[in-house]
Design a protein that fits this description.
The complex is a heterodimer of chains A (98) and B (207). In chain A, 83% of the residues lie in helices and 0% in strands. Chain A has 2 domains: 61 residues; 35 residues. The longest helix of chain A has 31 residues. Chain A contains 3 helices and no strands. Chain A is mostly helical and 98 residues long. Chain B is elongated. Chain B has one domain: Four Helix Bundle (Hemerythrin (Met), subunit A) (Up-down Bundle), CATH 1.20.120.80. Chain B starts with 16 loop residues before the first helix and ends with a helix. Chain B has 207 residues and is an all-alpha fold. The chains are: A mainly alpha (98), B mainly alpha (207). The interface between A and B is large, with 49 and 51 residues.
Chain lengths: 98, 207
């Protein structure tokens, strides 16, 4: 397969997978599943879709040549996790004390 | 895969010096994208802490305000535009001619405009129903988060228009190719943020 076909296929596969994952998340709402079940479906579909898009559209992988770039992304995600997790933790704690 | 120098679509060795010269530029753009991610992340945290009964302050909530059909159309438009924007970058990488790339960019702009139009219509209906940003903490954080994403999309539409002009005037310039790669990263990044908004704001709000 030529490089061009491989490149196009990567985008097409990504788009089709994302469309299905989006449908799965919407289906959880339309089928009116119990709240905990639909939240689980939405969370799994969202994380799967982010991984698919990072790989197919943004071309991020575990390739050794771009470890520095991967470090930048992973460090940003760590910062986000601390800030979002910390905010939600502190605020729910305050809420439960009110 | 041996010739990959930077995260994102690579021009490849067929583009000579343009390929190597793109590396620091694309890396710098990733630094910008990651700092933008932190901005969005903080707005997500603000949203999560105010999406409560208390945060709604007795005002209207997601069930009365959100239009699931419109949100589905917006999601579809944005995903399709992410694909067309990727195809525009591939047209430049594989030298299919600047006309092909411009065609895909026009498709991207049309889909992006459709997304923005639907989003503005939803904002208009919400405000008409009395759900203004000053009504409750939940609505303030909603308009801040979703509105900032909409502003990014608007900026992206302007950028796409500039790219069409550049591809028309100087399609073989290294700078043009670098800017198209950056535009691609920016647009795909906005679709990633939208997945978060769709899941955290709309779907979780209606679950």
């Amino acid at each position: 397969m030529s490089e061009f076909r491989r490149d196009v296929l990567r985008y097409l596969v990504g788009a089709v997978l994302c469309a299905w994952l989006t449908l799965a998340a919407f289906a959880a709402i339309i089928l009116d599943l119990p709240r905990t079940d639909s939240m689980a479906v939405i969370a799994v579909a969202a994380i799967a879709q982010i991984v698919v898009q990072l790989f197919c559209f943004l071309h991020i992988d575990l390739n050794r040549r771009q470890r520095e770039d991967l470090l930048l992304i992973l460090f940003s995600i760590l910062q986000l996790a601390i800030m979002i997790g910390g905010t939600i933790w502190v605020m729910t704690d305050l809420h439960s004390r009110m | 895969m041996i010739h990959r120098l930077y995260p994102g679509l690579n021009l490849g060795p067929a583009h000579g010096d343009d390929h190597a010269e793109a590396e620091p530029v694309i890396f710098g753009f990733w630094v910008f994208l990651m700092s933008d991610l932190i901005t969005f992340g903080i707005l997500f945290a603000t949203y999560a802490t105010s999406a409560t009964t208390m945060g709604r302050a007795g005002g209207p909530g997601p069930a009365e305000l959100f239009n699931l059909g419109s949100v589905a159309l917006q999601t579809g438009a944005l995903l399709a535009s992410s694909l067309t924007c990727g195809l525009a970058a591939l047209a430049v990488k594989h030298r299919l001619g600047s006309g092909t790339a411009v065609g895909w960019l026009i498709a991207t702009m049309l889909l992006g405009t459709m997304f923005l139009g639907l989003e503005l219509r939803d904002f208009h209906q919400m405000i008409g129903a009395g759900a203004t940003p000053d009504r409750s903490a939940w609505l303030s954080s909603y308009f801040a988060l979703v509105g900032l994403h909409g502003l990014h999309i608007s900026a992206g539409l302007i950028w796409a228009a500039v790219m069409i002009g550049l591809l028309h005037r100087q399609p073989e310039e290294g700078r043009t190719k670098q800017r198209l790669l950056m535009f691609g990263l920016y647009w795909h990044f906005l679709d990633l943020i939208w997945i978060g908004i769709l899941s955290v704001v709309f779907l979780a709000g209606l679950a």
